[in-house]
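This part of the workshop introduces the protein records we will be handling. As an example, a complete record with its sequence and its structure tokens follows.
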Amino acid sequence: MKRWFSLIFIFLYAYCAAQNPAKQKELQAVRTIETPKIDGILNDACWNNVPFATDFFEIRPVPGRVEAKDRRTEVKVVYDDVAIYVYARMYDHPDSVSHELVSRDQIGNADFISVILDPFYDKMNGNGFFVTAAGVQFDAKYSQVGDEDSNWNAVWESAVKIDQQGWTCEMKIPYSALRFSSQDIQNWGINFSRRIQRTNTQSFWNFVDPKVNGFINQEGLFTGIKNIKPPLRLSFSPYVSGYINHYPANLPGVKNTTSRFNGGMDVKYGINNSFTLDMTLVPDFGQVQSDNRILNLTPFEVKFNENRQFFTEGTELFNKGDLFYSKRIGSIPAYHDFSGINGTDKVVKDQTEAKVLNATKISGRTAKGLGIGIFNAITNSMQTEVEDAQGNLRQVETQPLTNYNILVFDQSLKNNSSATFINTNVLRQGSAYDANVTALLLNLNSKGNKYFINGNGKMSNLKGEEVHTGYSYTLRFGKQSGNFTWSYNQVYADDQFNPSDMGFFTNNNFLDQRIGLGYNVFKPGKWYNEWQNWFNMTYSRRATPGDYQSLGIETGSYVRFKNLWSAELNVNYDAKRNDFYEARNGQVYKAPESFGLALYINPNRAKAYNFGGNIRYQEQQLFAGKSYNFYLFQNFRLNDQVAFGLDLSFNPNYNYVNWVTNQNSQAIFSKYDRRTVENSFDAKYTFTNLMGVTVVLRHYWSDRRNKDFYLLKPDGHLTDYEGPALNGMDRNYNVFNIDLIYIWQFAPGSTLSVSYKDAAETSDNFYRQRYNKNLSGILNAPQNNSLSVKVLYFVDYLDLKKKRKKA
């Protein structure tokens, strides 16, 4: 009897251990002699007798639940001297597998399987390789806290098949796509993830607990990789492009239609096992999507998303400390010199972007966890063509030749912690000032990532005719794992701190303190799958002289329902505050208290037709100002190849009060009504997983209709304006864009792209009352049309070397 009890105990212990999500899983590495054919058919002999990675655990909708047997996942991995090979079978009913065709690096409405590799097994950095059931590839880099850099791209192979048991996938990930050590025996971090789109089910082989902060740190172990050597990583991507541009300037000596040809090259070189050099020579960014320009009535600039791949791919080291706003390089430079343009001059042609001559990145991480990043970019000078009162044309330099630099050292520590040094430097030719910003960062986590403390100290130095040195620091600590989380945050910047020459920064001279509370329920209840709640309070004072600025409270709740719809409710309150920036002349403005409420609805996006949106309401105490925002989006998939999207936004404001102009050093405010309407239509036709065309049309209209004017008094309050009549203070702004892009990946890493762009912009000091008149007006305004063709060809040195040997 004792023997039976012992056997039962051993069986139960083994079963519980196998089903314990918290236990780290291990997968034994198997070397293969036979290379599998990457066709999605799992009949290669090399897969025989290879252990399965199975019994995946859900992260949603029920964290920790083992996947159902009839929808189980089975994965095998083998390796040789060239690559890692992945075999995956996803059991399901074949008619239930979602497989929408989309462009590379998108998922769309599709199931996927992925492998996430951490070759240095530091539990902080990894590479993910995803394949959808439609055969579309998606790859990404991951950093220590789970940040996903989807702009990282590698050249690898994959194939899928849908059969009567579900679907299958094979991958070949060459070592040239990875960085790893040269040790004879290696252990890598590894995890696999699967998503079933129709049920919004996502599962991992090694359980990823949503209550634990971090993603890579919850990986499994791939053991016993023997005698593999990092290959020479060297590739070239030369390109040629041609442009035809038409703008009806209709000015003497200025051509309406112009053309140009460009040529350049991207280079990737593996300096050693850990570090890679990325270089772009005479790059061409003319085919990236246009910025969504808006009418900005605030005293601060608008931050735009970066769409240029070189400045988004593999930049996780350079983004440390939030000092790098890559659009400063060429696209939106911080410095302009208009001193050479007189008040009587007429601008004929104004360059809005500086040409990037070249850019270089060196980045990587050693086996001991030291990350090093070096970045350099050079932009050409910008010339503005002006016409004087006598009709003479001349060129005025408004942006000098500029050199941008970043240096980063980032040391990984225990428990996903790190210490970082970063320096950014901007050097300009001529008499323009130079800028230098240095920061030290420290991020410490307790064992298990439950508690954290982090902070940084920053110093900026602007050196020109005068020298300005400023300082800033941040201190944060709290609890980041578990159902209940909390944090305290303090940020300080003196009145000289300014990192905006290479970073994005709105204002300085503040001491902000913030308390955040959160309570999240990840275990599904009777009517919901997930429920998140938060409460934040922020209090701000000026650093000098220390007077009060603002007090804000925000609370909200997000819930995902059983039917896969979700809803979010936000409530915010801002007390009366001292606004030291709205007046644009240093005066304080006693801004009124305000209250806001917002409701967001998101649908089950697995449906062929889905819609959602939000309703927001904000009110100001002064003049009973009210703001409404109505947003509706609709998506319709005609089939797996064709899809449409429509976004409609209407934002009317009534009796709002803001600055409008300055006269004789006095700030004038106005009470005004404003309407903003934004419509965007997009469509895509994907021929195959390697070829597709997309189009985006956007019309944005915003106005400002002033009703009454007020003078800002020295005490910060407003009084009726009784000066001369103010004319031409209304605004009416329209933007229209068309972006039509065709992309064909005709070989691994090689693309042919054709881009057509149409852009128009008008800004008037009078307003058109109706939307149809504004749409008609912008369509009849001068349009800037461009057509471009670009061919980029990827050349891997190792493949080239093999071809030469065969010859």
